[in-house]
């Protein structure tokens, strides 16, 4: 309830700034973006090379989301900086979800690597940036959870394995509690690596097979900055997207509204604020 009240209040403020008499859906969806992702940082100065790299990074995420089997539908991709991210790619579950299948989790790992793989394929391995560091962290944590908590490792079976824990005092480790043996920990590491590498290989295969589509998405992002799934579908069909004039100073979109990100299950795949988006 409090979250909804905050969202509606923010939408009312947006409508007031535009001298509107009523709060429309566009203001509500803009307020979702601001509340859940942070305010747009349009004043942030980015070079053309950084914008291009960010566009391909986010385009890679989007392309893998579209084609990875079991992934929730792509919802929105933007290269407008928000919060700490230079760009964001979001998916929107079609319904409330209380559990996820192995196929869905593997698709998530693949989509997390879409940005890094796109950077490598377009700009070369020597120009891959640190922008994917959070993507790598999240993919590793997800893969480890699949092995140690969800029972998705044939080598370890349907058991739950606790992590080794350290007790820290004044910044120094004083004791260490081992919940698994060294041999088991080695298997956990190996199984985690396999899941991550399979996800990266899946992302690479998808992007290589649809490289022309990646160029289309990235170029459209450089032109429009924000694309909805409907925009991307139209572009990949070879159609154009129209952005009509906005007489009241709003940012138009092809679908007539800004994208939204609900709190139940949305994931934004955005790099950390370093060159490469």
Major sheet: 4 strands, antiparallel
Estimated share of beta-strand residues: 5-15%
Q: Give the oligomeric state.
A: single chain
Given the structure, what is the number of helices?
Answer: 9
Q: State the strand order across the main sheet.
A: 5-1-2-6
The rounded Rg comes to 21 Å
Low-confidence stretches: 245-268, 270-277
Spell the H/E element sequence.
HHHEEHHHEEHHEHE
User: Got a strand count?
Assistant: 6
Class per helix and strand makeup: alpha+beta
Helical residue percent band? 40-55%
| Rough outline | globular
Termini gap: 34 Å
* pLDDT averaged residue by residue: 82
Could you explain how this protein is built, in words?
The chain has 277 residues and is of the alpha+beta class. The protein is 49% helix and 9% strand. The strands form 2 sheets. Strands 5-1-2-6 form a 4-stranded antiparallel beta sheet. A hairpin with a 2-residue loop joins strand 3 and strand 4. Helix 3 (48-67) crosses helix 8 (211-224) and helix 6 (133-148) crosses helix 7 (182-209).
């Amino acid at each position: 309830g409090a979250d909804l009240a905050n969202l509606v209040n923010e939408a009312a403020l947006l409508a007031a700034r535009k001298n509107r008499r009523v709060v429309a859906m566009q203001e509500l969806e803009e307020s979702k973006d601001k509340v859940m992702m942070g305010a747009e940082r349009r004043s942030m100065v980015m070079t053309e090379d950084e914008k291009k790299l960010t566009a391909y990074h986010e385009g890679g995420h989007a392309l893998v989301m579209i084609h990875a089997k079991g992934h929730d539908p792509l919802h929105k991709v933007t290269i407008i900086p928000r919060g700490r991210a230079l760009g964001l790619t979001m998916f929107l579950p079609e319904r409330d979800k209380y559990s996820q299948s192995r196929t869905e989790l593997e698709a998530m790992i693949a989509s997390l690597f879409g940005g890094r793989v796109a950077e490598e394929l377009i700009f070369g391995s020597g120009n891959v940036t640190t922008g994917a560091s959070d993507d790598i962290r999240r993919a590793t944590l997800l893969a480890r959870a699949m092995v140690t908590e969800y029972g998705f490792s044939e080598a370890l079976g349907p058991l739950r394995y606790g992590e080794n824990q350290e007790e820290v005092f004044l910044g120094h480790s004083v004791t260490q509690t081992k919940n698994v043996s060294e041999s088991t920990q080695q298997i956990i590491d190996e199984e985690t690596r396999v899941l991550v590498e399979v996800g990266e290989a899946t992302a690479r295969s998808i992007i290589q097979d649809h490289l022309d589509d990646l160029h289309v998405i990235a170029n459209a992002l450089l032109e429009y900055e924000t694309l909805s799934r409907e925009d991307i579908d139209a572009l990949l069909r070879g159609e154009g997207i129209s952005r009509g004039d906005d007489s009241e100073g709003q940012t138009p979109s092809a679908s007539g509204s800004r994208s939204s990100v609900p709190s139940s299950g949305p994931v934004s795949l955005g790099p950390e604020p370093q060159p490469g988006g």
